[in-house]
Amino acid sequence: MSSLGLALLNSLDIGLLLFIIAVGLNIVFGVLNVINFAHGALYMLGAYLAFSCINVLGMPFWLTLLVAPLGVALLAVLIDRFMLRFVYQREVTDSLLLTFALLLILNESVRMIWGTGIHVVEPPALLQGTVMLPGGVRYPLYSLFVILAGGLVLFGLWFLFNKTRAGKIMRAAALDRDMAQVLCINTRLVITGVFAFGAWLAAVGGVVAAPMRAIDPGMGDKIIIESFIVVVIGGLGSFPGALLGAIVLGLIHGLGGRFLPEVNLMLPFVGMAIVLLLKPHGLLGRRAST
Amino acid sequence: MMAGTETDIILQAKNVGKRFGGVAAVADVDLDVYRHETLAIIGPNGAGKTTFYNLLSGRMQPTSGTILFEGQDITGMPPHRISRLGISRSFQINNIFEEMTVRENVEVAVTALRGDGRRWANLASRNVAVQDEADELLSRLSLSALSDQRAGVISYGDKRLVEIAVVLATRPRLVLLDEPTAGMTPDETQRVVQLIKSLGNSGDYTFVITEHDMNVVFGLADRILVMHRGQRLVLGTPEEVRAHPEVRRAYLGTADEEMAP
Amino acid sequence: MHIQDKTLTPPNVDTESVNGRSDQRAVQGGWLKQGVWAIAAVTMVLLVALPWIAPYFYIFIATEVLILGLLAASFNLVFGYTGMLSFGHAAFYGIGSYAVAMLLQSFQWPLLACLLVAVVVATILALIIGFFCVRLNEVYFAMLTLAFGMMVFSIAHQWRSVTNGSDGIAGFTVGSFGLGINLQLGNPSVYYHVVLVIVVAASALLYLICRSSFGLILRAIRQNPERVAFCGINVRAYRLAAFTVAGAFAGLAGGLMAPFLRIASPELLHWSMSAEPVLMTILGGSGYFLGPFVGAGMFVLLETWITSMTQAWMLVLGIILAFMVMFFRRGLLGTILDWILERK
Questions:
Q1: Which of A52, B55, C80, C110 is an S-S bond match for C286, by CB 3.0 to 4.6 Å?
Q2: Contacts of C220 (CB under 8 A, 6+ apart)
Q3: Interval B161-213: pLDDT, tens
Q4: Which residues of B touch C7 (CB under 8 A)?
């Protein structure tokens, strides 16, 4: 397998993980019309909870993958019930301010609870080590798992939105909240549910990312910027847009990291700027201009 | 209520259409609006008249066709450029600056007209030229008493009148009014009708109105465009429209008095 | 006493006030206006006399409050007046700081010249970033300003050869003031007075801009951008103008801060720094021009008090911001002035 092939595989790996996280952001926006600035912090919380579950409580990885995101989702329900409900009826900047405040709170809370050092989580025994790919290159088994996980989430979401009643309700609420209310859909429940679902997705991303990345208090900031770039490139509110944006960003990281390491940091921003110039609504987005 | 000569066409819509995905909200509508006339667009709900109105005023871009204002192609032009050419429109909801005073509302429009928005080192509260013009317009519409009231707290009918003041403040030649009497009491409705009539007689205005209230329509309009299912059904004088069999059919199911004079 | 009852509005059930949606109010008319001027005059006297009437420590507090107040007021031009929530305002503040720090370190230019460069550089950056950000709605705008702000942070953090990376630029001293005026800028008391004069002058200019016809259009854009567009205004151009002007003033604030802190570091560009003018504005109130200044005072005092007790300052900051947004959206000054004006 060539250097290019390896870079592409890396891109898929990074991209699909990004997709899991960015799609949660998009879903919440689609229904609530709000960008959750704390979304990255929820991802980070998922990773830290994974650390505590695995290293401190000795839980197996698979159980953690079940439990930790649920914990974060529960927290999200509390946040919605006790904080966000005050600002939903107001102009959207108030919601933005509140999620931003949440970001500060969660970031610092993580620092206080787990300290500022780096934590490490080992992949589960089943997924450790490398595997031999065609072409004679070894690739981490866990990275392949990440690709699989991303694919599962993708398929699961597609199924949810297109084939289930819950998905249809979410899409209806996204299109017209007042109309959904008239149709006796309990929009309050939908709002809380969607917000929790978004948080759950972010935390799943965090747990999945934990064995792969260094768990440090800055990981939330990094991922939220990346999620923003994904969403801008793909288009806010667009599900296929989130996938496209994630793949594009994955490619930028994978190929850029391999072939243009000096400017690798700037490339995502440049990509975002280009998309903003040519297609401000994102490559697949709906109307967003003023 | 004077209709201009056949040749003085102020607004022309040619083959204008708007598709949303697979649905054509408006399809193939032709319309010539004569200078100084008052034209009403009516139609049952879902007829596409609001969409067509939005296309004329530049709030939406047509997916097909062209729109010409005084001979100039304005299709796809952004709203602020259309406004500068001499078209002004009202909205049905969320139409004024609720947190400013009534006078300030009109001042915004006058400031825009005069290009004073570029002045960053004056005091807007001392901009006498703008204030005087605003006051003059407000008194013409009998709104002077409300000048210092916050626009958000006045009555609905007064709000719509303030909006008309804002619309007129940019000195348009073509005025588009979206359901100007919707939600108004009979008194308020009369006030607006009289206002439009007197403006139509005295000033250099052409009016295009969408309306549901047939009394208003038949009292004001020189010509009426009836829309149905996104298409132009009939365009003619009130008498022609009233007598037209297709129009009756389109309105079947609505109360009889809606069609009464 | 001559009571001119010009624009005071009658009391009303003001759900918009409660929710925080209330237009910028100029405190006009009658005894209230005279009262405000009186308070302002007294405050000015106290500020000038500060080094002689208060403990030495307060000179530093006051300098910080003034500079951050200017920063917050510049933010509020974009937020409270024009209705755009920017989470990347620190980019212009930080670049102003870096400009002054670099010029002082390399060339020892007079302060005024350095500040001028800081303003120019910040203006250019604001023009560039603003160009990308103002084309889209408020949600995108908040997102993009954060992203671009962090981009500037990344550049400063990585570009060791120019910005010295995470160590920042230090080891410079302030030399002369400029214009032939001889001042001991190394003396905190003197520097404080210089900051006072510059901030008051800049704030007066900013206030003029806010109350001008341009400011009127901005306020209208905040309330109903579509209506403004249909009056013939190119809304995007006005938003960009507001954003750029705000960036210029932020750059001035940053430029004043560099000699005060004696260092320009990437932290000044981080989104956590962008959060500070946001919080200060919410604390004081986005609905009045002086709100951000009051908020800056509250912020610095809170910070001084809380950091003496705990490391978790950001946590407290977040909690306070959340609390204010949920329950006291109009801020301290805003709530007080609203209450007074409503009772008339």
A1: C80
A2: B97, B100, B108, C227, C228
A3: 999 999 999 999 999 999 888 888 888 888 889 989 988 888 789 999 998 88
A4: 101, 148
